[in-house]
User: Fold this.
Amino acid sequence: MKNMRIPLFVVLGVAIIGIILGSFFDLGISTAIASADNKLGLAISAIGPTIGFAGVAVMGGGFIRFASKGDYKIWQKILFLVLALACFGVSVYYPAGEYFGINGFYGSAPEWMGYLIVVLPETGAVILGYFLYKHCENKNMWIVFVITIVLLLIALLGVIPTLKDIIHRPRYRLIVATGVEYHNWWEPCRNYKELKELYGTVSDNFKSYPSGHTAEASILLVTTLFLPLAGEKFKKYQRPLFITSCCLIVLVAFARILAAAHFLSDVATGAAVIVALLIIANEIVIRVKALHPGNEGINDKE
Assistant:
């Protein structure tokens, strides 16, 4: 919305500064503080996506509320239930693998144990979403949810993976362990397949740029931005939640550097991708008046 234009551009500006600084100091920073065995970095890296994807689970709860209580057509309610299930599934599937996968405490426990850790908080986020949107004043809030989902799909399944597959930047932990040559973020590692075979490592070790974890932590920034569209009463929570979301992004970004999984420019780019797309989505939402509360009320039969 209009009042968040400046904060969004400030966050984008900070991310761009991070990319610029990383262009000069990436290797020096990681050499000074990074370690593949850093327990704090690994712990925050594992937990961060769970918190970030809670924003998706909250939307799932909102969809359930719209399907069960809202004044919508049958086809819409069916769509809402399908989207609710998808939101919950995504919010469990993606963060679950971070706990005991290659980017977490690898080998400490079976990877499936991550699902047991994630399912409870994400279920709680769904319940929170249901009650959060129980008295939603905006009948078209579901469209805002869909816009949010499209934004996240473009970022997390489009832009981020594409950049990873183009650049194939070696992670710092691989450089330390094998002596693989350091690459700047703009320098594709064209012989990554040969290096992968030579050192018997996995493809994930050539996916440093950009940071998916930082992008996932940025999900809360998206849900926080559009929260007031559910009703005027939510406006007072927007700024504090926005600041809290920014703090989470910084924390996860720092943890990814500590854990030797990413460089400064990697995490800065991960955040920049989300924020840049969010700025575009925000401008679209600002101009579509039907998406704002008061333009089309919701007639609940509760």
Q: What stands out?
A: The chain has a mean pLDDT of 94. The radius of gyration is 20 Å.
